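FAQ
Q: What does a multi-component entry look like?
A: The components come first, one per line:
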Amino acid sequence: MKISLPEASRLNQKEFTYGVATASFQIEGGYDSRLPCIWDTFCSTQGKIRDGSDGKSACEHLKLWKEDIELIDSLNVDAYRLSLSWGRVINQDGSVNSEGIDFYIQLLDALKRKKIKAFVTLYHWDLPQHIEDNGGWLNRETAFLFQDYADKVSQILGDRVYSYATLNEPFCSSYLGYEAGIHAPGLAQVSYGRQAAHHLLLAHGLAMQVLQKNAPHSLNGIVLNFTPCYPVSDSLQDKKAAALADEYFNQWYIKPLFDGRYPDIMGSLEDKDKPVILAGDMDILTQPLDFLGVNFYTRNRYQHCPEQRFKEITMPDVPRTDIGWEIYPQAFTDLLISLDKSYQLPPIYITENGAAMDDKLIAQSVNDLDRVQYYQGHLEALDKAIEAGVNIQGYFAWSLMDNFEWAEGYLKRFGLVYVDYNTQVRTIKASGLAYRDFITARHTDN
Ligand code: GBH
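Then the predicted structure of the entire assembly, as tokens:
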């Protein structure tokens, strides 16, 4: 089974950037050579991770990185998106850990030799535990610690990095981590979630200032995730509920960056739940960006509910991935068009898109046709958005390989490459081969 798009599609041109993505905590392992982070603590708390696992070894990428770079190269991608482990490169006293930064220098140099563009995310959720012990993202000071971290690494890494993203998905860090309590650090209060979000966005703005100074030739920006909110029916009330959910879960993280204010729904929060915003903060948040990273997986559906603003409804009989998320590529097209209409955006990169499937390794191969279909459908949806005029420059599959899937542990597999966690043997899945062949077959326009 193949991935294919019309010959004339912009997605069929060599100028369009294709890549694969990972994140430090999810693949690296090497627990002993970095500071403990909030996910180590969360994993050691009973009942938080579905299979009781942790990220101490993960995919042993710290040891196997050379082999992994060969693997990435064998997929013929133009780019590799990775994240740095804050607690591997910065010591508790704020100084640089030379062994830690050396690991990334070697990795980035190896990518450069292979002409694979490095898209580096500075924060993909692994906050050093000692910072959490001081309040984590509830403490404004953390934003300045992040700026210092961004300042130090961008001075050292220089032009090895094609693109820097400050944060990955501040929605997940703040909402899932501080408001819903299902991600680290596992706190659960509206006021916490909203305050953490503000400090994360502040951290982003502060980091952008130093990135634009230290790495003016890199493409600097942020990665946001979007789960578009659809009504369960055409009733006005359900549509209103969906619009409110959209403000709360999606627009909350993008509107302040481009419009310098939070969505109107903030006004309806109780005063105790509203974030503390200091004078001048919004000017820091609105630093111009070189690119916007968009992560898309699925949509959610909402219903009007008298007691709450909106209620999420699980619809029966819709196609779903192995992690239970609905497969609905049309939402990808709609999302990109509506973002483009709503904001003055820089070029967009799709920094994550992919699916967990119930993969079976049989005779050293994984015939994951369901995942090939997912990619086919979502690339078609992306093509429609490009046709409609949205400026999209690249696309990253999540993920290079199966890895530690947060609260799901190792139970859910998102990789283009299968990982046997007993042997650490990697096997390219049918989807990985299809992605490789599709990328390889592109032509050069003009
Ligand atoms: C990304 O998060 C992460 O960046 C990455 O590390 C992770 O491995 C990958 O996706 C796969 O999970 O929660 O049922 O309402 C994506 C997070 C996924 C959060 C979709 C919202 C909505 C479905 N988002 N989710 S549900």
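Q: Is there any commentary attached?
A: Sometimes. For this entry: The first strand starts at residue 17 and ends at 21.
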